[in-house]
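Q: Octaprenyl diphosphate synthase, please. Structure only.
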Amino acid sequence: MSKTENAQKPHDRMAAYLESDMAAVSTLIRERMASKHAPRIPEVTAHLVEAGGKRLRPMLTLAAAHLCGYDGPFHINLAATVEFIHTATLLHDDVVDESGQRRGRPTANLLWDNKSSVLVGDYLFSRSFQLMVETGSLRVLDILANASATIAEGEVLQLTASQNLATTEEVYLQVVRGKTAALFSAATEVGGVIAGAPDDHVAALFEYGDALGIAFQIVDDLLDFQGDAGAIGKNIGDDFRERKLTMPLIKAVAKADAEERAFWVRTIEKGKQEEGDLQHAIALLHKHAALTDTSVVARTQAARAKAALAPLPAHPVKDMLVDLADYVVERIN
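A: Structure for Octaprenyl diphosphate synthase:
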C-alpha cells in the first residue's frame, strides 16, 4: 500500500500528495526565518514552526494551486507566506491571551518573554510581505495584506466582545472571520490567483476557505468544552477561564433565566470564578442544548465549503478538500 493510500485522514492524504511541495515550503521557511544579527528570531520561530502542526493553511494554498493547474514556482512562496502570517499571529495571540501552552508545549512567551514573542511575530510579518512581493502579483499582495489587516481587526474586536454578555452570534462570527477564516480564505484564494484561474474558480476557492475556516473555529470552540485535552493540545475549559464568549456560551446566555444570567455575569463579565464553575457552565450548556445547536452551525458551514467546490474541475485534490470539510466537523462526534 502506498503512503497516500495508507494515510487515512484527509490532511494526511493531502500532505502525502503534496509531499515534495511541502518539503520545498519547509526549506524556504527555514531559510527565511534565519537572522544574521538576532539568533533569538530562529530560536523562537523554530519552537512554533517545528512543533508538529499540520500546516493546514499552507497546504490549502498548494492544493488550490494544483487544483487550478499551476505549474510555476510561486505557490511555494505563497504557502510559506501563509505559514509565516499564521505563526506571527500565534506568537501575538499567546501574549494577548497570556497562554502557557500551545499544541501541548510551553508557549514562546513562557519560554522566552512577551517582548521576544511580539518582536519575532513582527519580524515574521515582515518576512511574509517580502515573500509576497517576490511573486510579482499585486492582486496576491492585495489579498494577503487585506487578510493580515482583517486578522488584526478580528483580534481587537474580540478584546471588546469576548467578555460582554451583549455580544451576539453575528459579532462572534465577525470575530471568527477575522481571527481564523480570513487566513483560510486568503490561503485558498491566492492559490487560484497565482494559477491564473478564472474569476468564478477564484471566488469558489475563497468561499471554500471562508466556510472551512468558520467551521474549523466553531469546532475548536466546541472542543474547548467537550474535547480531550491531550488531543486538542490545551486544557478543557480554557476559553471559559479566559472569559471568551464563544458560540456555545452565547447560545446558553441567550436562553438563561435570571439566576443563570447572574452566574454568567459573575464568571464572564466580572471574572470572579470559583471552584466548580466550569462544571456548572458545562451543565448549563447541556441544559440549553447549546453544544448541539453550535455543532449544527459548524456542520452547515462544512456543507457550504463542500458546495463551494462545485464549479472547480475534477481533481484528486478536490476530493481531498471535500473530505477535509467533512473531517473538520467529524471531530465533534
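A: Brief note, in case it's useful. The domain at 3-330 is CATH 1.10.600.10 (Farnesyl Diphosphate Synthase).
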